[in-house]
Specification:
It contains 6 helices and 4 strands; from the N terminus they run ααβαβαββαα. It has helices at 2-6, 21-36, 47-52, 70-76, 103-121, 127-140, and strands spanning 43-44, 57-62, 80-86, 93-99. Helix 4 crosses helix 5 (103-121).
Length: 155
């Protein structure tokens, strides 16, 4: 049984007048590229395209204005999804459709996306604002008093 797990056979057929090493290498690269490709599309796609992939669909209801930037995080987790806007309510809700087998990946992606959105909302002061604050603190500090006998600073 161990031998069966370690050994795999690949059948590759090439139609050519003369098979060279370069042609064989090119055919193997094309085969490996196709073998490594994910089964379905990844990232944002249409609902029709998502349904065509043959997996059951699930959805999550989302409320938010900047949901379009979610696609970067979803591609990181290899999740194919579709966003639909539901205008029937008065702030519009968004429905994110994805394949049911990707439920764990989509949960992780939404967690990372929400953390990133919370970080954006917390505004750090700009460098100029921090510099102005430091200047104000420096003005408030009294200048050091010089010791006349030694010419140094007093503590």
């Amino acid at each position: 049984m161990q031998e069966q797990i370690n050994e795999k056979t690949v059948a590759l057929s090439v139609k050519a007048a003369k098979i060279t090493g370069r042609l064989l290498a090119c055919a193997m690269r094309a085969f490996l590229k196709k073998a490594r490709a994910p089964a379905g599309k990844v990232g944002r796609q249409s609902l029709k395209s998502l349904a065509r992939q043959g997996a059951a669909l699930s959805n999550i209801e989302i409320s938010g204005d900047n949901i379009g930037s979610f696609s970067r995080v979803a591609r990181k987790y290899n999740v194919g999804f579709s966003l639909k806007r539901d205008d029937s309510e008065s702030p519009p809700k968004w429905l994110a459709f994805f394949k049911a087998k990707d439920a764990d990946a989509i949960t992780a992606a939404f967690g990372e996306y929400s953390k990133a959105q919370l970080k954006i909302k917390v505004r750090k002061p700009s460098l100029l604002e921090r510099l102005e604050k430091a200047k104000e603190l420096a003005r408030q500090m009294a200048p050091p008093v010089r010791n006349r006998s030694r010419g140094g600073h007093e503590l």
